[in-house]
Amino acid sequence: MTEKKFPVGVATGVGSWPGVDAREAAAIVVGELPELPHLVELPGRGLGADMIGRAAALLVDLPLDTSTTGYRVAQRPGPVTRLARDLLARDLDALEEAWELAGRRGTDQPVKVQAVGPLTLASQVELVGGHRALTDPGARRDLAESLAEGVRAHVADVERRLGSPVLVQFDEPGLRAVLDGSLTGVSILQTPRALPEPEALAVLHAVVAAVEVPVLVHCCAAAPPLDLLRRSGAAMVGLDVSVLTAADLDGVGELLEDGLSLALGLVPTAPPERVPGWRELGRPAVTLTDRLGFPRTVLADRVLVTPSCGLAGANGAWSRRALRSASELARAFADGAEFD
Fold first, then answer.
1. What distance in Å separates the CA atoms of residue 177 and residue 78, rounded to the nearest whole number?
2. Transmembrane region positions (predicted)?
3. Residue 73 in contact with residue 126, Cβ under 8 Å?
4. For residue range 36-48, what is the model confidence (pLDDT) as tens digits?
5. Global pTM exceeds 0.85
6. pLDDT confidence of 130, banded at 50, 70, 90?
7. Which of 126, 254, 301, 322 has its CA 20 to 30 Å from the CA of residue 238?
8. Residue 237, SS3 per DSSP
9. Which tens digit of pLDDT belongs to each residue from 136-167?
10. Per-residue DSSP letters for 65-121?
């Protein structure tokens, strides 16, 4: 197989998908995203199927259970961990079936898998006493190491099933709250402190390096910490273009100057009143490129097109249309289409 890398000039999804039918979702994603399909997440199935629940299926020797407020580290695997593993196995079976039907087994066609990033995970998982794991340096380290080991094993399993290269996306929607100290605690007197950026960077960088395949770190929140993401070791950074402001311009430019590629969220996750064409969808990216002073060819050479975030909250019809629109826009970028 050829060297693994994140393709550019193509489209992919962020991760989550509406509904509960894994086979239908896999068939749609493989069909609509011919260059970079992904293993979908179906949080509509409930416990064990959301972003943190998926982590329960991946963590090694660190089982999760639930509490009244969310997921909690447990002493031994219980129903929550077993359910999460069962749901992941069903999703993999569905993707493997769709892959076979599409004739892609044993090809150089890459596929993307997603996992919650170590900092968002630590911010959402509780310890036995009810405190967030983020507040305990040892717990942060243990979670990060367990996650990295689990994702490595997950990648190997998907590669074995599909006979194709696998790329990894870490989702860090909570990264800004981790750095700002805006998370809530078990009481007003126990609010987690802001995690210093060097400590956060060390955690994320270690996990990115440990998975040993090209990594995309995705942060669709407003005011993304672009300097930290640039130094994380990721090959690509995913951003929601609609939340970027003038204050983010220098950071985006530095990402490109440092040789990173961008996964730009350009297709809305909610169905609009009128379906926009590729020219309208791509204009924010063209404007961004022009303001940064880069040639527009960067949109073909360094950009992956995605919806602005996961599609779990959309209806099935728009989700499919969103992937198709992303693919159309990626082709327009690759072909050097005119946007003026």
1. 30
2. none
3. yes
4. 999 999 999 999 9
5. yes
6. confident
7. 126
8. strand
9. 999 999 999 999 999 999 999 999 999 999 99
10. EE-SSSEEE-SS--HHHHHHHHHHHHHHHHHHHHHHHTT-TTSS--EEEEEE-HHHH
Domain boundaries defined on the chain = 22-334
DSSP result, 198-219: HHHHHHHHHHHHHT-S-EEEEE
Cα 258 from Cα 260, distance rounded (Å):
6
| Angle subtended at Cα 279 by Cα 274 and Cα 285, rounded to the nearest 5 degrees | 110
* Tokens found for residue 87: 């749901």
Mean pLDDT estimate for the chain: 94
What pLDDT is recorded for position 184?
A: 75
pLDDT at 189 over 60: no
Joined tokens for residue 204: 């994320």
Read off the amino acid at residue 303: V
In 3D space, the residue among 79, 50, 68, 41 whose CA is nearest the CA of residue 126 turns out to be 68
